[in-house]
Amino acid sequence: xxVKTLLKNNKKLVAFxxxxxxxxxxxxxxxxxxxxALAILFMGIAAGYGVLASLVLATIGRxxxxxxxxxxxxxxxxxxxxxxxxxxxxxHNLAKPNEQVIYVCNHQSIMDIMYLGVVFPKRTxxxxxxxIKYYPFLGWFMVLSQSIFLDRANRKDAIRQARQAADDIHRxxxxxxxxxxxxxxxTTTLLPFKKGAxxxxxxxxxxxxxxxxxxxxxxxxxSRHVFRHGDITIQILPRVETKDVPEDSESIEILANKIKxxxxxxxxx
Length: 269
Description:
The structure is a single chain. This protein starts with a helix and ends with a helix. The chain is globular. Helix 4 packs across helix 5 (112-119). Helices cover 47% and strands 15% of the residues. It has helices at residues 3-8, 11-26, 32-59, 66-82, 112-119, 138-144, 155-171, 196-204, 249-267, and strands spanning 84-89, 102-105, 124-129, 148-150, 175-178, 208-213, 220-221, 226-227, 230-236. The mean pLDDT is 83. The strands form two sheets. A seven-stranded mixed β-sheet has the order 1-9-6-2-5-3-4, sandwiched between helices. Strands 7-8 form a two-stranded antiparallel ribbon. The protein is α/β, with parallel strands linked by helices.
């Protein structure tokens, strides 16, 4: 029997196997544009799911699962179709159930979201710049999932919003995830930290947990049109207590620099 006849007689099998074969072939292949388009598509799918999940999970009293489930979906899509994976070190440093912390993490590119889904905890709200609120789907989902939006251009407003977030940490029993650099930074150094996360932590008297995403420009680099598959390391460092840290600007500066130095030592290994 010829291959042509075999395929003709097994159309259902062919229809089933074709996408699986293509998925395996292109999981580690494809041009920069192709892989970038897929990554953006997956973000859109995850954000669209997030809008629906926000409505459903909020209705049944589980808003704490919204951001977590969206992050996990996006990580699954990128792992399955793009071969993007991450190894987590220090997972025991994540917050325990019914415990609140503030996670501070370095921010290399918009593609951080491909990796964060692997480690993003339950009962955690994301802090983002205010302009993201107005993005279609992504902004809608983040509003519905009770993300915290800071207007970094207005220092007084940002401090007021940080204080409100500090109150919400205990009232809503939620942790907070924030990128203290305030913008994307693809280098192997860290930009000066914005102080909002540290004011928030000292006001709420909760620990800070530093998270370091390994430099991944060998996998994704938009300036060189590089987008490969691969695994990176995400390291969760031991928590830093803030109960005895005063809320004055000098103490906050010392705390921020201490944590930045810890993260820098891991990032530059």
